[in-house]
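Hi V.,

Quick status before I head out on leave. The structure for the redesign project is tokenized and pasted below; the design run finished overnight.
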């Protein structure tokens, strides 16, 4: 069984440092079920590939099993030595433990950086087929190539097996890749070679930190990972929701931004412009993505044009506040039927976002990490693809107008970037070209001759 990991980020040989395995050595490790070997079939500045090969010993596995535990022959003759399974996860944690934990003394500057990484899993048993395979990896930002294998070439009428050769391409940190593989490989296989108890719950939460709680398939992943043990699954899902409470928009930062913008009543003007654009698009079914505490949702509810309103946010706390402010639980039924709040992340493809006429994305993109912006673009413009998208973001040029804002600072501590008008224009027209939308730009707030208006808005219309 073979797992390979490659990168072409120069110097590609950094992969050796990140994996803590020297590219020029062939190394072997004793594992409880056989042995693991690490070697590098290609090593250069331009491209480097590391292989982890497992030798699973079926006789060793059969030892210690009680009689009556399945068919006796199956102990010796089975697919385990040839496929990626929970043995691979165990090997990843034992052989690449430091890389999995994201530690690297020799390359501290690279360890937390997303790199162009490619992983090949020679044979992956996928109970659930290619759709399931994609629904787990694609939301994490991977491009997936999957090749299915027939059950028996001599009997094509038997159809395909559940085995796939899988290639993943992603821009992620090595630790993220290894954690994704660690958790998901046994989920596809839907078996474990050891007893699943409480420890397993802790392992899942530790390895799933930072991605599982916002994964659209987190329930399926959790159920399979914990072998459908209802009480463990319940506890895990409850703790995954708690995890997302440390939401990316700190209240302090939010407040500072509001104080700064208040004298301009910018918030009201922004909402006004967004509502005008949504109304004139003719939309009836609208999304408010990154709805926060529900300011826009409240306006949408007031207007009968909108008969289905879906607010989504990654922050559970914001959703709770929105729900309280909008008194969602006490709305009369004709109103309650129009609005729904859901927890989710714009980083992950989400079927619940499909089929809407329009989406508002108000002051959200600047909270996303620039390397992950392309994941958001695909989620919205390629998969959800509403007819209209109304998107706002700060105009960085305007920041000089606020005397209290130190030069070069962002308006909010959680902003990852703030764009000039030119930067927003290039991004928006680029997206438009790529996904077939035309874009109209609207300045929001008092416009200055030199630096423009404080907020910039793009209205995208699908052609
Ligand atoms: N649109 C609201 C809130 C803007 S603040 C308003 O105008 O008042 C930015 C919001 O984006 C926050 O509520 C934050 O939780 C949300 N957010 C940040 N990253 C997100 C992601 N990946 N997916 C969904 N929402 C996200």
């Amino acid at each position: 069984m073979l797992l390979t990991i490659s990168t072409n980020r120069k110097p590609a040989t950094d992969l050796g440092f990140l994996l803590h395995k020297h590219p020029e050595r062939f190394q072997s490790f004793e594992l409880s079920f056989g042995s693991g070997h690490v070697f590098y079939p290609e090593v250069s500045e331009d491209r480097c590939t590391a292989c982890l090969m497992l030798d699973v010993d079926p006789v060793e596995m059969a030892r210690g099993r009680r009689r009556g535990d399945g068919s006796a022959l199956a102990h010796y003759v089975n697919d385990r030595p040839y496929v990626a399974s929970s043995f691979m996860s165990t090997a990843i944690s034992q052989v690449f433990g430091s890389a999995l934990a994201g530690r690297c003394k020799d390359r501290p500057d690279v360890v937390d950086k997303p790199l162009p990484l490619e992983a090949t899993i020679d044979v992956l048993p996928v109970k659930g087929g290619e759709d399931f395979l994609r629904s787990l990896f694609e939301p994490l930002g991977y491009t997936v190539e999957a090749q299915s294998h027939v059950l028996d070439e001599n009997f094509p009428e038997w159809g395909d097996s559940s085995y796939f050769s899988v290639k993943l391409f992603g821009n992620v940190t090595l630790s993220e890749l290894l954690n994704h593989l660690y958790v998901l490989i046994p989920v596809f296989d839907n078996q474990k070679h050891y007893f699943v108890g409480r420890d397993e719950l802790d392992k899942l939460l530790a390895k799933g930190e930072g991605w599982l709680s916002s994964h659209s398939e987190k329930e399926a992943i959790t159920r399979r990972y914990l072998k459908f043990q209802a009480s463990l699954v319940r506890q895990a899902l409850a703790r995954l929701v708690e995890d997302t409470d440390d939401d990316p928009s700190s209240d302090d930062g939010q407040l500072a931004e509001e104080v700064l913008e208040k004298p301009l009543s910018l918030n009201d003007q922004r909402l006004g412009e967004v509502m005008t654009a949504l109304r004139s698009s003719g939309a009836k079914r609208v999304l408010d993505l990154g709805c926060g505490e529900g300011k826009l949702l409240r306006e949408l509810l007031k207007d009968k044009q909108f008969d289905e309103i879906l607010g989504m946010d990654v922050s559970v706390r914001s959703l709770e506040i929105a729900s309280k402010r909008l008194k969602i639980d006490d709305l009369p039924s004709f109103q309650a039927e129009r609005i729904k709040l859901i927890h989710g992340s714009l980083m992950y493809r989400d079927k619940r976002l499909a089929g809407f006429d329009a989406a508002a994305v108000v002051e959200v993109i600047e909270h996303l990490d620039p390397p992950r912006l392309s994941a958001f673009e695909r989620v919205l413009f390629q998969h959800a693809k509403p007819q209209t998208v109304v998107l706002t973001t700060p105009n960085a040029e305007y920041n000089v107008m606020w005397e209290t804002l130190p030069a070069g600072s962002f308006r909010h501590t959680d902003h990852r970037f703030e764009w000039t008008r030119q930067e927003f224009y290039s991004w928006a027209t680029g997206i438009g070209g790529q996904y077939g939308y035309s874009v109209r730009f609207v300045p929001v707030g008092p416009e200055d001759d030199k630096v423009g208006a404080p907020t910039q808005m793009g209205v995208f219309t699908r052609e």
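Above is the designed sequence. The longest strand covers residues 160-172.

G. will cover questions while I'm gone.

Best,
W.
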